Amino acid sequence: MPGLLEIKMARKMLEGNDELARRNRERFRSCGVRVVNLMSSPGAGKTALLEATLPWARDHLRVAVVEGDVATARDAQRIAALQVPVVQMNTAGACHLDAGMLADAVESLPLTDLDLLFVENVGNLVCPAAFDLGEDWRVVVLSVTEGADKPEKYPAVFRRADLCLLNKVDLLSHVDFDMEVFQAGLRSVQPGLPVLKVSARTGVGMEAWIQWLLGRLKPENPAGAGGNGFV
Amino acid sequence: MPGLLEIKMARKMLEGNDELARRNRERFRSCGVRVVNLMSSPGAGKTALLEATLPWARDHLRVAVVEGDVATARDAQRIAALQVPVVQMNTAGACHLDAGMLADAVESLPLTDLDLLFVENVGNLVCPAAFDLGEDWRVVVLSVTEGADKPEKYPAVFRRADLCLLNKVDLLSHVDFDMEVFQAGLRSVQPGLPVLKVSARTGVGMEAWIQWLLGRLKPENPAGAGGNGFV
Predict the structure, then answer these.
(1) Superfamily covering domain A2-217
(2) Could you tell me the pTM of the whole model?
(3) Each residue's pLDDT tens digit in chain A (231 positions)?
(4) ipTM attached to this prediction
(5) Distance between CA atoms of A125 and A142, rounded to whole angstroms?
(6) Does A143 touch chain B (CB under 8 A)?
(7) What part of A 23-82 touches B (C-beta under 8 Å)?
């Protein structure tokens, strides 16, 4: 009965992960660093979005990045080119980051000297949603080229998100993306989830995204621990 | 040690799956039906590709479809609208189809009256690659909007494919897709993997894709069992 075995195993794995995520969260708070977990399908533009965000962000904040991938260090190389501290985590085939991997990754980062850590998860709209990393906020990125039906077809990742970035809106006129279907789908899985329309390539919407981050980073924000060095 | 547990559990699951896949394969051969396992990221266009393929295919072949999704029956509804027999398999959160799910799904299909069964896997470029379903051929679909680096970043699914359909080529002039990077990546993970450039939306490349299927379906093809009713 592979199905039953899978459920039992998954429960054990998730319990182990939850404990490690709790420790990560405590550690991040004691160091005064906030953490954003970026999730999406392969090719939705997470790395391009970081490339567009980081040049601005590092003028205001001390930032670093953890790059999760099944294979290669390509994304980390793109981030390193921006002179931002970055750690590549290769999962050796696994379909998501887990809290233990993130704990290992941040060993080589100066956490107490950081304000904000971006964690780019493995490109996968299913599995990463189940694994708490100890992050403060989950941001799901959907590109308009993927189609408007994705919130309903992949509900978990949208249900647990704090923000949805609708990326590649510069391509809207070239694809069949029904904005009403998309918004109705989001309402059915998580009413009230904020959505920002962005294009990492053209810069559209980047200011709103950055304002969202700044709003979250304010010391009075209940999700934060204060004293994070944000000025 | 969630990592170690995960490896042990994964091995047990895959062994159980392999046995069920072997039984599926025997059953499909005895019924004279060939099976194509379609895999891609969410939104790469698997369903649109089937919508473009089926009207032609059913003039020559007796076809049916199994639709795998985490949630919703949207894709099956799209296929049913074409008057093609279709079964929706919802995985209740799981990130891939497995051989046991496919065995359940085909219970309601008249296998002995079919020539070709398309199985649309869950949108996921990682997990489905590990699960043999008992299919004859694996077809990986990549859309140009996902970027040229995907074969190297998600090697398993490309390494085990029999064909790569590069979809949405009608958008090539609107995105930054480096064809040489893509081809070099493919060569590094599976030299010689055939690639067809297609657009499900415009119909470009559909004839070549159909010819590929017909070539595979010929009784003398070593992967086939003959007697599949193809004329």
Answers:
(1) P-loop containing nucleotide triphosphate hydrolases (3.40.50.300)
(2) 0.91
(3) 345 555 666 677 788 999 999 999 999 999 999 999 999 999 999 999 999 999 989 888 999 999 999 999 999 999 999 999 999 999 988 999 999 999 999 999 999 999 999 999 999 999 999 999 999 999 999 999 999 999 999 999 999 999 999 999 999 999 999 999 999 999 999 999 999 999 999 999 999 999 999 999 987 655 443 333 333
(4) 0.89
(5) 9
(6) yes
(7) 41-44, 69-72, 74
